[in-house]
């Protein structure tokens, strides 16, 4: 890819209109989420994301063995 092609692609990307992904609203939330519900949601998210990574790192030496 030449430099002119890259610059043309960059200019085209800058000219395009961005489509809004989410509708922002300044209204208050319809449902109030309590602190307990937020804590449960965050805990589940952390376990879902960090759990498998932690398992692999904890058992890394077992995976290295060729038995």
From TrEMBL:
Associated pathway: Energy metabolism; oxidative phosphorylation
Q: What membrane topology is given?
A: Single-pass membrane protein
For this record, the Gene Ontology CC terms, alphabetical, are:
mitochondrial inner membrane; respiratory chain complex IV
Keyword match Protease: no
Q: Which GO terms describe its biological process?
A: mitochondrial electron transport, cytochrome c to oxygen
Give the record's family classification.
Belongs to the cytochrome c oxidase VIII family.
> Could you tell me which PANTHER family the record lists for this protein?
CYTOCHROME C OXIDASE POLYPEPTIDE VIII, CYTOCHROME C OXIDASE SUBUNIT 8B
Q: What is this protein called?
A: Cytochrome c oxidase subunit 8B
Write down the species.
Epinephelus coioides (Orange-spotted grouper)
